[in-house]
């Protein structure tokens, strides 16, 4: 993508803003963390989360939508989002979630061995290497707290 600020390799957008990653991996967005090494950006309705090459995560925006509370440390490989929460998958297959608890920001399954996460607007589902599925998020739509094999 090309814009007034130069060439960007990826972008994420909210209803009211855009956050592209330049080719040299710094972020172009008000409130974005300083520095470089970012490889991807994800968004909820009013927050962003950015993944760095070392697997660490930075988040900013409305805290009710996951703009704060990102997990510390490194080794994360991907971030997923609902409209108000984020979930991050770590190299060992463990999951961390943050944001609105009724939209998947809490209640993520414990343990390791998860290989993928999928999301709707209000819930997450995680696939484990053994073929089992765990879900969490909005209970009013029966999208959370199930585990089947």
TrEMBL record:
<dbReference type="InterPro" id="IPR009091">
    <property type="entry name" value="RCC1/BLIP-II"/>
</dbReference>
<protein>
    <submittedName>
        <fullName>Uncharacterized protein</fullName>
    </submittedName>
</protein>
């Amino acid at each position: 993508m090309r814009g007034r600020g130069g060439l960007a390799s990826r972008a994420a957008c909210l209803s009211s803003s855009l956050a592209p990653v330049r080719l040299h991996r710094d972020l172009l967005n008000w409130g974005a963390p300083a520095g470089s090494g970012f490889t991807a950006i994800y968004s909820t309705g009013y927050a962003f989360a950015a993944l760095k090459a070392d697997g660490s995560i930075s988040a900013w925006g409305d805290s009710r939508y996951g703009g704060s509370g990102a997990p510390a440390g490194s080794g994360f490989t991907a971030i997923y989002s609902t409209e108000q929460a984020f979930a991050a998958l770590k190299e060992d297959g463990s999951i961390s979630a943050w944001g609105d608890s009724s939209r998947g920001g809490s209640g993520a399954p414990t343990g390791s061995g998860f290989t993928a996460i999928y999301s709707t607007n209000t819930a997450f589902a995680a696939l484990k290497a053994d073929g089992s599925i765990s879900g969490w998020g909005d209970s009013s739509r029966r999208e959370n707290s199930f585990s089947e094999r």
